[in-house]
């Protein structure tokens, strides 16, 4: 079944399943069950089975799921069969930290460049990446066929940066700026704002 027919909340849980399976494999497990995955994730086994059923039948009666086999299927469903190049826009504290994060490469992503408008940062290296002038972004995106970008700039600059990225060919944005972006319908945006998560948690601390 095509992903466009699957509820987005289901797609959002697939990376959690993939992460759990990877941890299981690292621990030497060969087979698992929806019950065991439920214990790892705090999600009901019925929900896990229902989510996976959107994409076919993966388990076998009596043996459960092959840890390696289900990982392979999920990577295929999530379009992780090849490495995705990504750019970061913003070479400040957040952008630099993200560029230095070592966990992208073995999970299907490669940060290949960082962009900024600060002359003091342009030309320097952040992690393994060179910092380019943001004015070079359109040419770089087209030349390297980049489709994904992370935005790590101040809130007041985020929309302008997003507009530039989208006009250059970016269709998926991970947004670290604490502001909602206005984007065309064909562009996917995921927002990362730790304050929102902290505010969510403080509700339970009364």
UniProtKB/TrEMBL annotation:
Pfam families tied to this protein: CoA_binding, Put_DNA-bind_N
Q: Which UniProt keywords apply?
A: Cytoplasm, DNA-binding, NAD, Repressor, Transcription, Transcription regulation
A single BP term in Gene Ontology: response to redox state
In this chain the CoA-binding domain maps to 80-180
Q: Does the keyword Transport apply?
A: no
The ranges the UniProt entry gives for DNA binding are 16-55
Per UniProt, subcellular location reads as: Cytoplasm
Enumerate the InterPro entries for this protein: CoA-bd, NAD(P)-bd_dom_sf, Rex_actinobacterial-type, Rex_DNA-bd_C_dom, Tscrpt_rep_Rex, WH-like_DNA-bd_sf, WH_DNA-bd_sf
Q: Which GO terms describe its cellular component?
A: cytoplasm
Q: Name the residues that bind NAD(+).
A: 90-95
Q: Which top-rank group of organisms is this from?
A: Bacteria
MF terms from GO for this chain are:
DNA binding; DNA-binding transcription factor activity
Q: Its family?
A: Belongs to the transcriptional regulatory Rex family.
This chain's function reads: Modulates transcription in response to changes in cellular NADH/NAD(+) redox state.
Assembly and interactions? Homodimer.
The name under which this protein is listed is Redox-sensing transcriptional repressor Rex
Q: Which organism is it from?
A: Candidatus Thermofonsia Clade 3 bacterium
